Amino acid sequence: MSAPRSTARRALAAVAALPLLALAVTACGYGSAAKDDAPKADVSTGGKKLSADTVKIGYFPNLTHATALVGIEEGIIAKELGSTAVKPSTFNAGPSEIEALNAGSIDIGFIGPSPAINGFTKSKGKSLRIIGGSASGGVKLVVNPAKIKTLDDIKGKKIATPQLGNTQDVAFLNWISEKGWKVDANSGRGDVSVVRTDNKVTPDAYKSGSIDGAWAPEPTASKLVAQGAKVLLDESTLWPDNKFVITNIIVSQKFLAEHPDVVEAVLRGTVATNAWINANPDKAKASANAALKKLSGKELPAEVIDPAWKSVQFIDDPLAATLDTEAKHAVQAGLLEQTDLGGIYDLKPLNKILKAAGRPEVADAGLGVK
Asked: 120-157, pLDDT tens digit by residue?
């Protein structure tokens, strides 16, 4: 759950009160640069240089990755890193980000639960750790109201998901199964046609009539609504307390072992960013949109970003129990072999930061490093 504004302000104030100021950040990837409007000096290490000159951070140009978008755009993460430069890169799909992490092209990434699970299991638990949460929610089932008026009308229709085996794909397949309908997970054929369609082209696919709706993350869902689609279901209503992880923060185990001080500094930056977002929602929304404009060449119109922004919660808790549930859904769908996720989390650095801020520690659902 997002921190109350008063708590968020205290957390941000605690960060701001440190004798830490920002260094310029070297931008790369798609050219998204953090602002640098403070004197150059090392930050949260009390003037000590961190163990790495650069940290390479990967994320998606999506609102569900706004912790990264805003944290880099506003220089909040950079202020925690001091003379360690942030080198950002953006990705359009989880598998490519996992490949980049495994190859050392990025050190830390913002990513959905399904690719994090897949990356961990395919490496036999050796590639990554989840070190924090970033966002919950922001996923909706949106449909053509002329063709679909009730949830039962989904049967026999063509519904898009972003990618075979991705987080939304697994969620939709599980929902279909709970309805008692049959679909072959790999082909997408059955009582419902599951059409794997990149989020970038889903609006055009909807406009052309090649799909009847989509189980989609924001801002894709709101883009469809702007074209006349209707929200039939918000996925958050299917989860306890209306919360489920949509974006995690992961790190390569090699980088975590070699540069724990840098990892901790990045986490301080993400905690401060989420506090700032929750205390300043309108400014944060504008900041995220500015970052998206730098990455894609255009900003989201108000009719898209306003409803999309409201549906995402920015949190530090990785909601580990919901990731475990999502893994079980993937196994049930036949997209993941039964596996042991023990050790996928290392929340010790995050909990150290939260404890220092006087906030409750977060749980790893028994899946943390021993």
From this structure: 999 999 999 999 999 999 999 999 999 999 999 999 99
Low-confidence ranges of the chain (pLDDT < 50): 1-45
* Residue 120 to residue 344: CA distance in whole angstroms: 7
pLDDT in tens, 106-120: 999 999 999 999 999
